[in-house]
Amino acid sequence: MKKDIEDLLYSVPPNADYAVDATDIDAEDIPRSRVQGVIELLGHSEESIRFAAARLLTSWGYREGLSYLSNALCRADEIGELEVHRLYGYDETFKLALAALVGYFTRSSDRGHGEEARGEIFEPIKKIIQLSNSRPFEISGFFWLVEDKKFYEYIPELREHLIFVIESPDLHRWKIYDVLRLLLRVDNAFASNFLEKMNKQLDDFKLGGK
Predict the structure, then answer these.
(1) pLDDT tier, 84 (very low <50, low <70, confident <90, very high otherwise)
(2) How many Å apart are CA 17 and CA 180, to the nearest integer?
(3) Where does the source fall among the domains of life (predicted)?
(4) How far is CA 41 from CA 51, 52, 56, 122, in A?
(5) Could you please report the per-residue DSSP string of 65-106?
(6) Three-state DSSP class for 137?
(7) Contact present, 132 and 175 (Cβ < 8 Å)
(8) Of 44-53, 71-80, 103-112, which range is least confident?
(9) pTM higher than 0.85 for the full model?
């Protein structure tokens, strides 16, 4: 990757030492020239660079990024493994896409457009939940929106998610615990009935058991 592209996508300015990575940089510390440069990368010849640009723009609250990211999620088989963990080699593509969508909501809320953003992120997050039904990546990074912000529109998809992942406990055990814990808080009747039918308790799904 060329240095100028790498800087656009990943650099954190010295005055933004609060940021973990480029997605965390506050709006006032992102020059318009950088935003425009990242937008231009949406037309790059390499899919990995286009996707990284879309993810960053989405995290910053820009619709240009959200539009590309939403469309890319409809091509899941093509974009899988575009973002691989540098140390451990597992696929982080969809987990990072989900984080970007959460970022889009929080940035938009800061600008007074939270409800509009809530509607905009629904379909792409729904798609990511569906992908997680059969893939190992986690989705718990957005659960606070369901619990704290009362995004109950996701409950039907999360019920389906639980039904799918429970069929492969060796692959999804930690995800089973996470979604059950959430549903016990926001959809208690369903989750309690689910556990009762299985003759299980929440702690039975902790890694290592009780």
Answers:
(1) low
(2) 37
(3) Bacteria
(4) 9, 9, 11, 25
(5) HHHHHHHHHTTHHHHTTSSB-TTT--B-HHHHHHHHHHHHHH
(6) coil
(7) yes
(8) 71-80
(9) yes
How far is 60 from 63, CA to CA, in rounded Å?
9
Query: Would you tell me how many other CB atoms lie within 10 Å of the CB of residue 126?
Result: 15
Residues 6+ apart with CB under 8 A from 68: 42, 50, 51, 53, 54, 57
Q: Is 46 left (phi over 0), alpha (psi -120 to 50) or beta?
A: beta
Eight-state DSSP code of residue 206: S
CA distance 41 to 8: 9
What is the end-to-end Cα distance of the chain in Å, rounded?
A: 47
Q: Taking the domains of the chain in order of start, what are their residue ranges?
A: 1-121, 138-210
For 204, the token pair is 């039975």
The whole-chain average pLDDT of the chain stands at: 92
> At which residue do the structure tokens 């702690």 appear?
203
**Residue 80: its pLDDT value, please?**
58
Q: pLDDT tens for residues 108-155? A: 999 999 999 999 999 999 999 999 999 889 999 999 999 999 999 999
